[in-house]
Amino acid sequence: MRSLVAALTLVASTALAVPCTELPVLFLVQDKSGSMNFAPDGTAASASNPSKWSIARQVVPTLASNFNNRFRFAAAMYPTDTATFNCSTASIYAPISTQTSGITNAYNSAVPGGGTPTAASLQAVRAHINAQNLATPAYVLLITDGLPNCNTSLDANSCTPTSTAACGTVPPAQSSCGLGAKDCLDTQASVQAAAALYAAGIKVFVVGFDSTLVAGNNKAVLDAIASAGGTSSSYSASNQTQLTNVLNTIALNTATCCQDVCTAGASQCLSNGSRRTCSLDSAIGCTTWTTTQCQAGTTCSNGTCQGCSNTCTAGAARCASNGNVEQCVANAQGCTSWQTADTCGYGEICASAQCNSCQACTSGASRCTANGIETCEWNVITGCTSWRAGTCASGSVCTNGSCTACNTACTAGAKRCANKTVETCVANAQGCTSWQAGETCTDFCSGGACGTCGTNCTAGQTRCQGANGVETCIIDANSCPAWGPAQQCAPNSYCANGSCMTCATSCTQGAKRCGASGTTEECRLDSMGCTAWAQTGQCDVGGGERCDMGVCIPPCPVICEPGARQCSANRPQSCQAGPSGCYVWRDETACGSEQACVGGNCEDSCGSGEIEFCPNGKECVGLPEGRFCLSTDGGVGGGAGGGDGTTGGGNGSGTGGGSGAGNGADGGSNSNGSGSETTEPGGPQRIGAAAMGCNCNTVDAGAVPLLAMGLMLVLRRRQARR
Fold this sequence. Notes:
CATH superfamily of the domain at 4-151 and 186-259: von Willebrand factor, type A domain
CATH architecture of the domain at 4-151 and 186-259: 3-Layer(aba) Sandwich
Protein name: VWFA domain-containing protein
Organism: Archangium gephyra
Largest sheet: 6 strands, mixed
InterPro entries: VWF_A, vWFA_dom_sf
Radius of gyration: 75 Å
Low-confidence stretches: 1-15, 170-175, 634-708
CATH topology of the domain at 4-151 and 186-259: Rossmann fold
Number of helices: 8
Keywords: Signal
Shape: rod-shaped
Pfam families: VWA
Strand content: 25-35%
Oligomer: single chain
Number of strands: 46
Strand order of the largest sheet: 4-3-2-5-6-7
């Protein structure tokens, strides 16, 4: 890079300009490729390290303003990028003019992007200049930050790449360059284009504005272009100061005449707050503007220095209306103003005082919205992508970014629940229906409507339902707490404080019993559902009442004495305790046909006729009912009379008082019985042997057969009666 000292030396040795009727032309060819969005050192641009484009946009218009009395300026810029990496020729942004506003407007409106078609751009500028038929000299000033490319006629398999892509390392006809021939280094065509300009009398100055173009092979390429253009070698700049000095050096060395640009004595204010005045420059013989700084605390207004009217706070940043980043800067006088800090490049937008990518989506992508479909579109001018709204045709709906036939999911107006959210079936403009979320319920959603839980309890909590039921708090199908169905406690238990408890006592409901002191009691249910004995009455014990099975029984009438017996018709009766506890006559088995009830007992008949017979221990006694065998134990009828045999008669006492003497066959001793038997009048009498005057101590031999015959006769009669 030529040093500033060298530049000043050139200025000093340059012949003074002289007044001229028409100014020469300085044609600016500006590289506007995408790499101009980066800082000169190749890093991302920032407020403290602005992009190469932002620097050029300030320096170049200033150059035109400072030298507008020595040149007419024009500007051409590399083509704008497109999706196909534009490699067309440069566009004329500012035609040749004495007004520098065209240059300022050109740099403010252009947006970096695209390739570096240096050769094609130089050819386009030569054609444009030739078409003007200029009568004055013309010069081309090329400002670029990279090596020339974009020559589609080159062979990508054999060319030298401008980037790190390994072009030419694969078999022929197989390009390994990122963009094929567009990535090939276009040195030869660029040198030829510069040589053609120089041959037409137009010198070409080349400025490499990037840290990679300071030395080495990269600078050699730019030197070759400059040499072919008649200016020996290229210039290099790596920051704003260096670029300003290089451009001023080129302009000073090239100017040959001048024109008055202002009226001597006039004054103007510059955008940076400084003041300039018009005066005659004796060195060049023309009027020129001289810039001076206002004193501290003042700024230029209406051509004079006045007190500062600060419009912002130093250090603040914002997005300007032109889409660039502005920063509040304090000038040398301490006055603040908004100044461009960064120019948002192609595909960028200013947001939050920073240049950010404006790629909102991927070009060509689509997505569904509530009202239809959106498609991502790419703006060729700005490089930004954005969603463009669209609609699906009637009867179709957007699904996964595409319009498809409606799949009617529901009936318009219907409602349903999705957990706690009410969803409504809505028909869109195309007639397609879909469920859309609506109100979110606080408690629960049921049947497409919000509901409120009506029970306030804790899951697992219990309570009593009535006296014998236990309810448990559950979570129902709507996730609400609710009391579940009551579970009945087991028999002989009750519910207390939500739990089943065993009853203290137990009895059969309705049962009765007698309590102490003649009380009557009944088994009843209490308020807890338990059975307990409850007093129902008090028997008049003093009055003779008694309690029996829980009932008061009145005093018993004296009907008979316990153990007494009597006859009723021909049936014995005994005095016994009845169910009531009172003694009453109880029937026994009726006497047989050969019996009669006598004194409460069934007694056998003695027989009829002349001979009577009674078993041992009994004797025949005459009674009103007849003659019967009665016991000889002193009971009714007295004892039985003595009988013939080995055993003597027993002594009996009673109403009969009967006694008898036994006549033993074996001649044993007999006891004589005494007594008498009372019979009914006219009744038969039984007379013992002693009564008959029989001496039973001796046996009459002649009487024995007679006795035997008599006994046999008696036995036969008894058998016949039976």
